[in-house]
Specification:
The chain is an alpha/beta fold. It has a single domain, classed as Rossmann fold (3-Layer(aba) Sandwich). Helices cover 38% and strands 29% of the residues. The chain has 6 helices and 10 strands. It has a 5-stranded mixed barrel with strand order 5-9-8-6-10. β3 and β4 form a beta hairpin. α1 packs parallel to α6 and α3 packs across α6. The longest helix has 29 residues. Bound molecules: S-adenosyl-L-homocysteine. The site of S-adenosyl-L-homocysteine has 20 residues, from β5, β9, β10 and α6.
């Protein structure tokens, strides 16, 4: 039986670094103006890639992973801004589903609905998400970083949300439409939509780097340089081990 190729997507190079160092039999392939790294983690075939930033860039990377590299499941690791009360810097959110906070084709379609899909949300794969939740808890406690792990909706859009008032409004508008998100970032919903199109299972984990508020521009880079890579490696290492058992 041919082993399933697992794609591991990160948004930022800082998050990917640890995984790249761990990659066995690494082989670099350039495609679509991006670098893809083929290899193995714990004997499992993987392809590592950077989504780049924003929905379109993430959609291109995801499509390439599926079409050119034969990825059969996708897992995303990245950072996000916490916007629900109680979702703090250093917490981790495993996505249950994604919504695009900047999708608005009203009045032709209801606010947040993706035109022609008849839906506002794309759900993550339940089995993979359970494995990712377990891997997150185990991976972080091995590291001595027992973090609060949340599971729920994440909102994506082409904006770095960095003002408390904006974060409040964004969350209030989404909540009113029945889509109260835990966190905000810039890629996840695009990856979810492409995976839906190809019927590829997808799971995503985001570590909270900032609160999408007036200090987000300070908290975000500090978190990314200091901790994001260690979190991503600990979680994905454990996840791949669980998926191959
Ligand atoms: N590479 C640049 C910009 C990163 S943009 C830099 O290093 O400065 C922020 C990235 O982190 C995106 O990939 C996004 O998904 C995530 N992110 C973290 N906090 C966010 C926030 N408050 N709002 C939107 N995206 C956020």
């Amino acid at each position: 039986m041919t082993p399933v190729t697992t794609a591991v997507l990160s948004a930022l190079a800082e998050e990917q670094r640890g995984l790249l160092e761990r990659l066995q039999r690494p082989q670099r392939v350039n495609r679509a103006g991006r670098e893809f790294w083929l290899g193995e983690l714990h004997g499992t075939p993987v392809v590592l890639a950077l989504s780049r930033i924003g929905k379109v860039a993430a959609a291109t990377t995801t499509t390439t992973l599926i079409e050119a590299f034969g990825a059969q499941r996708l897992v995303f690791t990245g950072v996000a801004g916490g916007i629900a009360p109680g979702v703090q810097v250093g917490d981790v959110v495993v996505a249950q589903a994604f919504v695009q906070h900047d999708m608005d084709a009203s009045p032709l379609f209801p606010r947040y609905q993706i035109p022609l899909y008849g839906r506002e949300r794309f759900a993550c794969d339940a089995v993979m998400s359970e494995a990712l939740l377990a891997a997150t808890r185990a991976g972080l406690s091995h590291l001595g970083l027992p973090a609060t792990v949340h599971h729920g909706l994440i909102a994506s859009g082409d904006r770095f949300v960095s003002a408390a008032e904006e974060a409040r409004q964004l969350r209030a508008a989404l909540s009113e439409a029945g889509h109260a998100p835990l966190a905000v970032e810039m890629e996840g919903a695009a990856v979810a939509q492409v995976c839906h199109d190809y019927a590829i299972p997808y799971a995503a984990v985001r570590t909270i780097s900032d609160r999408a508020d007036d200090t987000a521009h300070v908290d975000f880079p500090k978190f990314v340089t200091e901790v994001a890579s260690r979190y991503a490696l600990a979680i994905i290492d454990e996840f791949v081990r669980r998926m191959t058992k």
